[in-house]
Amino acid sequence: MDVSITVNGEPRSGEIEPRQLLVHFLRETLDLTGTHWGCDTSNCGACVVLMDGQPVKSCTILAAMCEGHEIRTVEDLEVDGRLDPVQEGFHECHALQCGFCTPGMLMTARALLDENPNPTEHEIRTAISGAICRCTGYKNIVSAVRWAADHESAAKQGA
Amino acid sequence: MQTPAPFEYERATSVEGAIEALQRLGSEARIVAGGHSLLPMMKLRLATPEHLIDINDLSELAYIREQDGVIRIGALTRHVDLLKSELLAQHYPIFADAETVIADPVVRNRGTIGGSLCQADAAEDLSAVCSAVKAHVIIRGAEGEREVAMDEFHVGPYMTAVGAGELLTEVRLPLFEGGGSAHEKCERRAGDWAIAAASAAVWIEGGTITEVGIALSAVAMTTVHLTRAEELLRGKAPSEELFAQAGAIASEDCSPSADGRGPVDYKRHLAGVLTHRALRRSAARALHQEA
What we know:
heterodimer, A: alpha+beta, Ubiquitin-like (UB roll), DNA polymerase, domain 1, 2 domains, globular, B: alpha+beta, Uridine Diphospho-n-acetylenolpyruvylglucosamine Reductase, domain 2, Uridine Diphospho-n-acetylenolpyruvylglucosamine Reductase, domain 3, Enolase-like, domain 1, five-stranded antiparallel beta sheet, four-stranded antiparallel beta sheet, 14 strands
């Protein structure tokens, strides 16, 4: 079957099997390998992308279900060579070691800050509770999201 | 790589269209909504439907509203919307209790109440919640609708009263004065299935429990409806001693199996403790005494 999905603001289409999962459509059909494919059981959160602005686990959504919807992946965070504040935060706060969980963490954090620009530590920890990191112990990830929140609000006030 | 076995996919554009498709495609067709129970089962070949009918476009099935003294929840209502509903928070805080501990926020963006109930997994929280609050569900087929109480809805492990060519469309919660409700769950880690969980709802009038609902998750092959404990409580004044007795009955009336989540005696112990706590919190909420 043919599928047409808006991915990172551009209409993309491809011929797929109905059973193809969104994560594989992104990685294999569109060559967008920033989205990681991890546990395959909707536990680890490495494959999180935004669907119509909401974080979802792309290993547990059929590509066919995304027809007519907007998908945003980690490749879309950087704009004109400028990193998104959550990416900067991860850099500044050393919020990754191996980096496998990072794309999912970044998209989950982006969605959190879009909905709640000033989250508490508890709200950050709740938001990322569906994402597993085996390197950091989460502390630096929480700091990074908080860093992004602080710098986004400062940028908004400055503008 | 885990990928489902091949199937044909189609999207429903109306409830009638979904029912028509179910009847046209026969017993090897399944409805998919959030897909967070069905797709994992398909990856493991525990389910191998030949056709999937996607109902995610049926926005007419996504609502939480009060009408004629009944809260009506559309089958496509997602966990995140149950968690955030002010109407449910006001009348049935048990939903927010459960939704904060069902999977994780990202999964809750997709999973639906209709999917959770139709999955009929004994470890799933909303089935016990709906049993405790005396919910009824609306099942629609080509010949029209029927209303089914939760006790008749779950007919066995992973089996419901939804027949071939039928679709669960709505969950109805009765509204009575003086109600309080709560869900208590014990899990190994954030977002996991319950080791055991207890759902309770009590209605108190003039210092007496007039009606009560109690149900357990994850401690039998199906959701456990604690009718014997309910009979004990009905018509009595709420007290710690009474709730402890109900907890003791819960420990007796469940039939857990030993697995990676714990041995049988531990799960029976949890069923008792969690039932006691859920009743205590329900009563405190009914009496507006929650700390």
